[in-house]
Design goal:
Blueprint (H helix, E strand, L loop, with lengths): L2 E8 L4 H13 L6 E8 L5 H8 L7 E6 L23 H4 L5 E5 L3 E2 L4 H7 L7 E5 L7 H6 L8 E9 H6 L3 H7 L8 H9 L4 E3 L16 H5 L4 H10 L2 E2 L13 H8 L4 H5 L5 H10 L2 H18 L1
Parallel strand pairs: 1-2, 1-4, 2-3, 6-8
Antiparallel strand pairs: 4-7, 5-9, 6-7
Amino acid sequence: MNKVPVVLSFTRNYLVPASTTILSILKHNTSLNSYEFICLINEELPDEDKNKIKTLISPDHTVVFINLQNQLKDIFVNARFTIAASYRLILPEILPSYKKVIYIDSDIIVKNDIGELFFNTQLDNYYLAAVDEPALDFQIDYLKQINCSPGEYFNSGFLILNLELLRNDNLVPKFIEGLNNESWQFPDQDILNIECKNKVLKIHPKYNSIRTFFLPQYKDEFLKRYSIKDWEEVQQFGNIHYTGAKPWNNITVKFDEWWKYYQLLPNDLKKDWDLNFNMYIKSIIWRIYPLKFLINLGLKFYRKIKY
């Protein structure tokens, strides 16, 4: 059976969020695909930590760790991000024997079968497949400044990458050169949008549903790019990408969904994590239906007033 290669890139403090993402992928493996999880890390993980992730998966799946500590040492790193965010840009060189992979951020809860998507997506002459972000008003000037069309700018948190074509066209040197531009708001994402322009296959928004896709006040912006059916499918089973505030530190959109998968992690994974106890207690309260109903009602009212 061919495995679905899924790449995650994270620092050690993201061990638990990354594990939560992996668990959510496996929980929605309805087509019973076999996965290979490729974890890119910026330092050597202790064997204990590696074994914790390995306890998540059955013998049908595999996990490998690649230490990239000595990669991209001289590039500029925006203080808002970590070096791990840039590793996706050098995947064609890191994985020379792979033709195609999924890349996924470690702040995503998967709620559909991404293995099925992988095998059904023919990239051909496309560099990658991705989900567009409908542009908000305050983003338009910046997108035009970097020569990206509003509404055609994609989020790089979930990608199917055509590594073979990226290698053949020698894109990695251009990506690395771009990383030294200190003006990017979202360095790896901006670079991919610029260098891969016109060779991006657009996929359903349910595969990378960013925060605004779940907020009613942004529905009109969503519908400028997508259909009402797309909106409904996102609400029902969109992969939740926690852009912005993270649910393990803050109350966010779909806050309770992340904690639901966290609770399913093996205790060995959870016990040594620097748990935000305040958020943990709130996640427990959130699961009590009458309280959850009142909280969601209050948030809906607050957002209606604010927006």
